[in-house]
Amino acid sequence: MLTIISGSSREDNNTRKVAKEYQRILLEEFKTDAQIYALDEINATSRDSSFKNAETQLLIPAQKFIIIMPEYNGSFPGILKLMIDNSDIKKVWQHKKVLLTGVSTGRAGNLRGMEHLTGVLLYMKVLVHPNRLPISIVDQLMNEQGRFTDENTLTAIQTQLNEFVNF
After folding, report:
1. Where does residue 150 rank: exposed (0-12), middle (13-18), buried (19+ CB within 10 A)?
2. pLDDT at 12 > cutoff 90
3. Of 157, 76, 86, which is closest to residue 119 (Cα–Cα)?
4. Chain segment 108-165, per-residue pLDDT in tens
5. The domain defined by 2-165 carries CATH number 3.40.50.360
6. Contact predicate 36/97, CB 8 Å
7. Contacts with 20 (C-beta within 8 Å, 6 or more apart), sequence order
8. Nearest to 164 by CA among 50, 15, 63, 54
9. CB 53 within 8 A of CB 35
10. What is the structure's pLDDT at 107?
């Protein structure tokens, strides 16, 4: 099982749009089904019954994760760190594989945030795929329907996903 984590709790966020695009591309081009764990839908601030239910259905069964995360203050969102900290680290994360994609409306595509999260994940014994993709000016690369229109970005995503499906 593959789970895509949309790492923003803000309403109507670009991160969720990118997560849905990854899900669509995986299904259409790689015949791979993926579930989305969206932090704007699931309360990650406490380990309550809804969190445990989502953990049981979307996190523990996954052998691979794709984490799509926006740039917040030069790093990754605190809500993403809180979700990780609230999860059962051994059951959810250890010895699993993760692909990282950073998104921003600025120029760097959250390079620094992906580097920070890589350090956290490696500490937790997670295997991080080396092709971490920064997507800059994400708001200009997608149409009103939330689909990427930029061919270079689509090619980069397809390459990244092709590598990860076979990882």
Report:
1. middle
2. no
3. 76
4. 899 999 999 999 999 999 999 999 999 999 999 999 899 999 999 999 999 999 999 9
5. yes
6. no
7. 36, 146
8. 63
9. no
10. 87
